[in-house]
Amino acid sequence: MLTDYIRETIKSHAQPFPEEEVCGVVVDGDAIRIPNIHPDKANHFELDNSWVNLQPDAIYHSHWKDEQPGELSLEDLEQCKFCGIPYILHHVGFDEWDYYEPKSPNPFPLKKQGDPQTLDFYLNWRFVWGRSDCFALIRSYFLGILGIDIGDFRRPPLDGFPTIGWLTPWKAEEHGFVQVTPGLPLRKHDIIQIALKGGREPNHLGVIVDAEGMQMLHNVSAEYTSQVGLYGSYWQTRTTHIFRHGSLI
What we know:
The chain is α+β, with helices and mostly antiparallel strands. It contains four helices and eleven strands, in the order H-E-E-E-H-E-E-H-E-E-E-E-E-H-E. The strands form two sheets. The protein has a six-stranded antiparallel β-sheet, with helices on one face. The protein has a five-stranded mixed β-sheet with strand order 2-1-3-4-5, sandwiched between helices.
């Protein structure tokens, strides 16, 4: 998707406008610039309607400010997931690139390579809210390992999050899961919902990857990377629900 030709074409679109977000689409191996009609072009982009009938393979835009990341923002990621079309980002100042496919198990396709059908692929992910957070990790695991889409939800801004009383707006039963009766043996691929920060409602997620060894894959916070660890008493006492996908029963 992000060939040298596409990169150079996007650069040629963005560089003449160093103080606004330039945007467009990738169609059949070519990048087509589309007017940015957002009223605040310096900080946001919005495509006009001319792109709708083009059936794009990807949507691109640029960042240019020093304080803007060389990666897609949370707003970018949420828009990408909403439209279901891959996003490309070019930061003009840093000459950096980012790419995200909302239907892929790989959240960092330009940086992370490997086989998503293996457990090792899901280890040592840095925590990026809305992209490789605890839920995104488990969603990617189910997509890559099992070919099962467990859905997603819109993330609130991370500033000041999580607020007291916030509930993960993901309903397992709506995505083919059934609740496991407490006390029954765990199985591989069981999803564990956990309440952290002293709460009673789930705000963290893990998945059992070795039932006999009680090993759980999860991504706790920005201070850590994704890892497999013991699903021991600390996590068990904070568990609120255990879910098993109907296809695995």
